[in-house]
Amino acid sequence: MFSKYLNSSSVRRQFSLIKSLIVPINMMSNLTMNIACNGKYAIIIFLSILLSFFVIMDIHLYYSLQSTTLVGQKRIGNQYFSPFEPLSVKLLLTDPVNHYIFTPLAEYFDDVTQFSKVFYFITPNMISFTHLVLAFVAGKFVSSESLGHRRLGVVIYHFRNWLDDLDGVVYRSHSQTKGNYRSNKSNLGYYIDIYSDIIGGFALSFGILFYLWKCPPSRFNHNVLPLKSPEAIPQNPERQNGSPVRKSFPFNFLTGTERPSGGLTRKYIFWKVFCFGFTLIIAAGTWDKVVERYTYVFQNEFTDPKITALQTEALHSVWTWIIIWIWRGIEGQALLQMVLLSVFIDRVWEFFNVMQYLGICLVIILNIVSEIHIRQVCHMLGIK
């Protein structure tokens, strides 16, 4: 009788339904476990979400720019910070990570906690010196052989970047210019902040250099992300208990011919890091000049309505947006974000290989295009 019950069509349909529900659940469970256990997929998913967020925000930024001008924009009263209003040339040319993440976090932090008012004795220069110290701490961690320590260094440097935004927020609060994203070169704090950023970038670069000297890369390692789990990767004979053997740094690293286990001399490694550092300096320095010149062109108020109309037309042109958008991707802070990401995923050497000459070429070409565009707009507006 029981066998007849099991053989009934209704029971078979119920079992089939249950089975059809269990299979997708098992598949989702396995997928979740694979994502949780495999860092590569987790990083890919995170980066995909982050890039999608940046694209959506940039689209919103584009349409916000098309509906406004940059002349006389100010933050109204106790209005909370928005990455789309008020706009300025400096904010438009800021990299997406700072524009959409660090700057809003710093602004909201000050709005909610009233940090700049409660701790009024904390000056922007004090914050600048603090994030300079943190840059050296991050550089020390980044130079470690341990991937966990290097990732901690990346986190510390990101906190340093947030403090870099916070010192600007505190300055604007103390000077009663909230929402006015415009550099004040007549203030000593501007130069303290600039040189703190430069020295901090050097600290990070030297940290990466020391790591590459201690753990020389292989000439033939081209994987973007590890395709195997660490247990499946054969151990390098130059490693002891999974950790790289420390190598002393010769004082004649620029002229020495000592070839580490990876087959690359320290001179060659230094040249790779130097090329990136040089690109970083050129990108940061020229970005500041381009911001200054575009500010003069697009944030300068004209009394003639015809010139104002031409100014607005030039601001809303497709070429202006393309130049702005490319600058957002290769300015100094954007390059720092890229190298920090490469450190985090343990592929900094591959990043240096890609950016060694490509980076400086892009920066030079973009500067030339920007200069031509600025001169054309100035000629159109009748200004020098």
Automatic annotation (TrEMBL):
Record keywords:
Membrane, Transmembrane, Transmembrane helix
Q: Which Gene3D superfamilies match?
A: 1.20.120.1760
Q: Which domain of life is it from?
A: Eukaryota
Q: Which InterPro entries match?
A: CDP-OH_PTrfase_TM_dom
Residue ranges of the TM segments: 41-65, 118-138, 194-213, 269-287, 355-374
Tell me the protein's name.
Ceramide phosphoethanolamine synthase
Protein source organism: Sinanodonta woodiana (Chinese pond mussel)
